[in-house]
Amino acid sequence: MNPYTLHSLRFQVRGNEWPENAQRLRIELLSTCPPGSFLSPVFEAGGQRAGAEFETAVTGNIQINAAQSDKAPDLAVSVRAAFNMQDGSVLEAPVVGHQQLRFRVASSAGTSDSARASRLPVPRSQLAPGQFDALQRALLAAFKREGLERMLRLKMNVHLDHIARNGSLTDLVYDVIDWADREGRVGELVRVAVASVPGNPCLQEFATGFERMRPCE
């Protein structure tokens, strides 16, 4: 995928049942990219018979306004589906199969490496060597999925399913830490985790070591 370019996407959607009073099916692509760097409209489909299995195709565009270095991870985009109901409400629809898409954003054609380097900041981890694994162990010792989800929503204003894949609790915690590191919010994550479970010795120990070993800014 080339940056700064509209790319077409096509989803082939199958469902077990079109809900009664559902007007349209909406598919959204959700990303933690900063506003303006990720552009994609809502994909919509309608005209299906209520109560019946359905299959339909929806198309749209996606544009990434940033390039990636060769060593950067793929851009992960979560897929969310919901029905717009006649009364104005929204009915969430589980996505089975392709719950997350991954894109590789190529360097801009015709742009020199030195020009890209001067324009794009180089990501820098907030975690010293060994701290990623230590934080993962601390969070696993302190939280179940429900508690982690609640803390992120109430304390950091982020939905767990927007930043993490479906999987085991270990997978979820890994994705949360990876997201926080990329977004520069590891310190915030540690603070709110300690505040949410103040009596947990693993978190307290990590928080103390994190502040002492924090990489220089």
Describe the structure concisely.
Helices cover 34% and strands 25% of the residues. It has helices at residues 113-119, 131-142, 145-155, 160-163, 169-183, 186-196, 201-213, and strands at 7-15, 22-30, 38-39, 43-46, 54-64, 75-85, 90-93, 100-103.
Give the overall average pLDDT.
78
What would you call the shape?
globular
Largest sheet: 5 strands, antiparallel
Helix/strand-derived category reads: alpha+beta
- What is the rounded Rg? 20 Å
Number of strands: 8
**Overall number of domains:** 2
Order of helices and strands: EEEEEEEEHHHHHHH
Question: Low-confidence spans: pLDDT under 50, at least 5 residues?
Answer: 108-123
CATH fold-level topology of the largest domain:
Immunoglobulin-like
User: Approximately how much helix is present in the residues?
Assistant: 25-40%
What is the number of helical segments per DSSP (H or I, 4+ residues)? Answer: 7
Q: For the terminal residues, how far apart are their CA atoms?
A: 32 Å
Q: Which band does the percent of strand residues land in?
A: 15-25%
What does this structure look like?
- The two termini are 32 Å apart.
- Helix 2 (131-142) packs across helix 5 (169-183), helix 2 (131-142) runs antiparallel to helix 7 and helix 6 (186-196) packs antiparallel against helix 7.
- Helix content is 34%, strand content 25%.
- Strands 2, 4, 6, 7 and 8 form a 5-stranded antiparallel sheet that branches.
- The chain has 2 domains: 7-119, Sandwich (Immunoglobulin-like), CATH 2.60.40; 131-213.
- Mean pLDDT is 78; it is low at 108-123.
- The protein contains 7 helices and 8 strands.
- By secondary structure, it is of the alpha+beta class.
